[in-house]
UniProtKB/TrEMBL annotation:
It holds the Pfam family Epimerase. This is NAD-dependent epimerase. Residues 7-217 form the NAD-dependent epimerase/dehydratase domain. InterPro entries: Epimerase_deHydtase, Lipid_A_modif_metabolic_enz, NAD(P)-bd_dom_sf. It comes from the Bacteria. It comes from Enterobacter cloacae.
Amino acid sequence: METRGKVLILGATGGIGGETARQLIREKWEVRALKRGSHGSELNGEIQWIAGDALDKEQVASAAKDCSVIVHAVNPPGYRNWQHLVLPMLRNTINAAERNGSLIVLPGTVYNYGPDAFPLLREDAQQRPVTRKGAIRVQMEKELEAYSQRGGRVLVVRAGDFFGPHAGNSWFSQGLIKPGTLPKVISNPGTAETGHQWAYLPDIAKTITALLARREELEPFARFHMQGHWDPDGSQMVRAIQRITAYYGVVAKIHSFPWWFMYLAAPFNATLRELLEMRYLWRQSVRLDNTKLVTFLGAEPHTPLDEAVRMTLQGLGCLTAQSGSPQ
């Protein structure tokens, strides 16, 4: 069977990596994925899983052999230990890409930017982060840009807070609702009249795939911003969840997110400390400008909000037979 090429995905068991793998398979790419804890190489579904660790330089290089694209979607679990793990993993990807002449795809975040760049972020906005994770993300992109200046090719696709049926750890699943049950209470981390950017993972994967289909037209260090789902007043996402739960016979209540509890518990929980560091993104409106993306592709892949929320709740186990039938 003729394919569009071979791609290695680092982080294929995560939200963005897994969604991108599924979309690339639909578009006839040959997909490999690195997986810790496995032995040898095995075909599971349509993904070739290869035993290895993103922290092992030679294992990454071996897995990337003959791959024209490497998707770097791997992150330390639970937001922890970024300062010791993130850059070494990226450098292993860059090393593998240099050996194989691969294009590197990085799913970007808004962490790179500080309030001086808000509220509307274009690709050329100054990156002056105010958090440790933001500084690391900036360094990641600097090292990728340096790779492009040595003859490599890089694609950064930046989007807002992830949500989707396979999102894993996310604000949607950890902050707004409780997975596994039909929500009766929805927490809103934002403040009134403060806009927030959301990104539906299948739409991100479709965007990455569409850009890769035209990769020969991209500049060596290409960056694109997605608009995703823009929540102009900080209430649209929680109200969409509320509409879906009402459809299943439950009128969920919307409460303010208990930031006070996070401050109390943070000294004892590394993940909460990391999440608190990003609170500034809920206190000020932050919007990504997708003009460049739309100009290049013609349109941005976009799933209607209620459909995206329904699929996300279903994927998180919130809409099951036990939830009752739609009313």
